[in-house]
Amino acid sequence: MAVPIAVLDCDLLLYGRGHRTLDRFKLEDVTDEYLVSTYGFPRQFIYYLVDLLGDSLSRPTQRSRAISPETQILAALGFYTSGSFQTRMGDAIGISQASMSRCVANVTEALVERASQFIHFPEDEATVQSLKDDFYGLAGMPGVLGVVDCTHVAIKAPNAEDLSYVNRKGLHSLNCLMVCDARGVLLSAETHWPGSLPDCTVLQQAALTSQFETELHKDGWLLGDSSFFLRTWLMTPLHIPETPAEYRYNMAHSATHNVIERTFRTIRSRFRCLDGSKGTLQYSPEKSSHIILACCVLHNISLEHGLDVWSSPATGHMEQPEEEYEQMESMDSEACRIRQELLLTHFS
Fold this sequence. Notes:
Elements: H1 10-15, H2 32-39, H3 43-57, H4 69-82, H5 87-93, H6 97-113, H7 115-118, H8 125-139, E1 144-154, E2 173-180, E3 186-194, H9 199-205, H10 207-214, E4 221-223, E5 234-235, H11 244-270, H12 285-304, H13 333-346
Parallel strand pairs: 1-4, 4-5
Antiparallel strand pairs: 1-2, 2-3
Helix pairs in contact: 3-4, 4-6, 6-12, 8-11
């Protein structure tokens, strides 16, 4: 008598017996349209992920090996792009919702292990110059190495006593600091900061700041909005522009910085687990941070594979907290000098 797969034990599904897999879904049995509508990505992209992550997802145990990498990846993509463990999705690939959750954890960790491979600043001079040229082509802002901003992702309350994750809207969230290039490729992603921290504090404590102050790029800068302090490596808008040059600078700054907002919208639109439409991420802050970073890795891989059409704004329920800040004008005289020189040289 056949046993319905939905009632099989989760460990049996994951580890089985006799070194065999129990999943029954085959990529070649379905259409590209089905894969995109259900899992968010086309067949060749999924095959690439299988090659990339296969070794990590096939680690043998004393009892057996895991569900096939292909099925684990489909389960994870289904969650990332829909935001829920749907019964019909589990049924389609032959595993339970509990097993889907385990697959998401496996794939998430495999992607996080490879984050530095796909999310990083360029190092060779030719690529750095190309990065600047791409930004300059947007609105005439020279020397730009990336645009930086923060975005909140809702999570479940860690516990009743911990208020460090409660943001200005009274919701629990992670405040994620990201930098992208002119195409929306992420160059840096720090996804673990508690939602109570304002953007300027996140940047002050971030590895990004240490990276730019001690190691990188003395001949360029990032662009950030007025929630950040002006620094020698971070150009911000002028609080009250007065001259035509200052207005032109602010307009070019705003048009260039808008790339990061579009990137946030694209990521939320593609990865619905982050947009709040299915509720908050039902994981600890650490696991939620890893899921966000895994989606960032997938975002960059998708751009690498030509899936780079800007998406429409997502319609999720997570409103971004508006920063209530005083204008962050720097007391750094060298930073002020650099911005003034930029104004005189390129916008006068």
